[in-house]
Amino acid sequence: MRLERPIDEARRMRGQAICKLGNQTNRLDDQTYQVNSQSGHGLYTIANSERGWRCTCPDYVYRELKCKHIWAVEFSAKLREIVKPRVIEPIDVHTCIYCNSENLIKWGIRHNKYGNIQKFSCKSCGKYFTLNLGFERMKHNPQGITTAMQLYFSGESLRNTAKSLRLIGVCVSHKTVYFWIRKYVTLMGKYLEQVKPQVSETWRADEMFLKIKGNPKYLYALLDDETRYWIAKKVAGEKFSKNAVEYASNLFRQGKEVAGKKPLTLITDGLHAYHQAYNREFYAHRRSRTKHVAWKTGSVDNRKMEAFNGTVRSREKVMRSLKREDTPILEGYQIFHNYVRPHMALGGKTPAERAGIQVQGDNKWLTLIQNAKKSIQ
Questions:
Q1: The pLDDT value given to residue 1
Q2: I need a labelling partner for 97 at 20 to 30 A (CA). Which of 8, 85, 91, 271 fits?
Q3: How high is the pLDDT of residue 81?
């Protein structure tokens, strides 16, 4: 069907305006999108077929015209292709870590109980460095330390981790393993705060019971529906009091800061604190407001959130309760979940990879620690 250019151009411009709003287009998968009705009459579904994109709006159904919603989906798909994933690469030892110059010379050997470390000097900037970036003044080598972190967050206890390290010649106590975790989780956490994940438009929030020093607490967690990226967390003492509203509000506020946007859809259980926190942080009088879906048994599939809670529960059982609310263990497990552990449901990828953040190298712990250390120098 032949289109009049002024009308076609008007739809294209309106579709571009919808795309620029950011929270009007919801990608369900590569072939299906949902776009908010601009008149406030719900959602239109745009699906890809052999004949191209098809929309459920009246403009397309009755006139068979390429509507503004299809234009918005096409613009959104192009933007998704243009946005390049952020790549966190292992530190290249052939260039200076300060100025990236290749004009290096060897500058002696640092003798260590667990091996010798080569030092280098840069002729361009005059600084010297070792290949032990991030592990300076550490008695044990990076492989031993990162192996300890991998063992612990994979499910071993501190004592079993220390026993396993003896097989590779690293003899330490379980307290030393905890000190390593605390030091490097803090270092990586500050670095990863600067990294923005490309999460979807649908988020899930839930709380789970755990113990802190034997006392009952709740872990509030915010999870991206598509990438399984753990966006934010909050440890709280209550879930039914007035304070629970503040806890949930802090969780949603932290999620907006991490993702740099608001979701199009928020899925929670029927806890009243979530609804009040939603009104504080996400509700808007504009048509582009976040939709809050409070699920009940059998109404909304919540298996993704339950599976996530199960992994955290398994980790918490091994520890026999945490020792403090601000423990580095939870933050470390969040890093492990997002950047290190591959997920079968994501095709063997990590949530960070699905969210546009690629951590390269066989030892992702080493890559993250080195880049975190380099970022503060």
A1: 39
A2: 85
A3: 56
Q: Work out the number of other CB atoms within 10 angstroms of the CB of residue 87.
A: 10
| Residue 122 CB partners (closer than 8 Å, separation 6+) | 96, 98, 99, 101, 103, 104, 128, 129
Domain coordinates in residue numbering, the chain? 5-82, 202-323
**In whole angstroms, what is the distance from residue 264 CA to residue 65 CA?**
27
Closest among 17, 106, 43, 35 to 73, alpha carbons compared: 35
CB atoms < 10 A from the CB of 289, how many? Answer: 15
Phi and psi at 153, nearest 5°, equal -75, -10
Q: Helix, strand, or coil here: 106?
A: strand
Cβ–Cβ under 8 Å, residues 283 and 172: no
Q: Give the alpha-carbon dihedral of 20, 222, 270, 28, to 10 degrees.
A: 40
Q: What are the beta bridge partners of residue 112? A: 115
- CA dihedral of 151, 157, 158, 160, whole degrees rounded to 10: -80
Backbone angles phi, psi at 263, to 5 degrees: -80, 160
Rounded Cα gap, residues 54 and 52, in angstroms: 6
Task: State which H helix or E strand residue 221 sits in.
Answer: strand 215-224
- Would you tell me how many other CB atoms lie within 10 Å of the CB of residue 9? 11
Residue ranges in the chain whose pLDDT is less than 50: 1-4
Return the bridge partners of 234, or none. Answer: 220
Contact in structure between 370 and 377 (CB atoms under 8 Å)? no
> What is the largest distance, in Å, between two alpha-carbon atoms of the chain?
79
For the chain, how many residues are written?
Answer: 377
Class of domain 202-323: alpha beta
Q: In 10 A of CB 375, how many CB atoms? A: 11
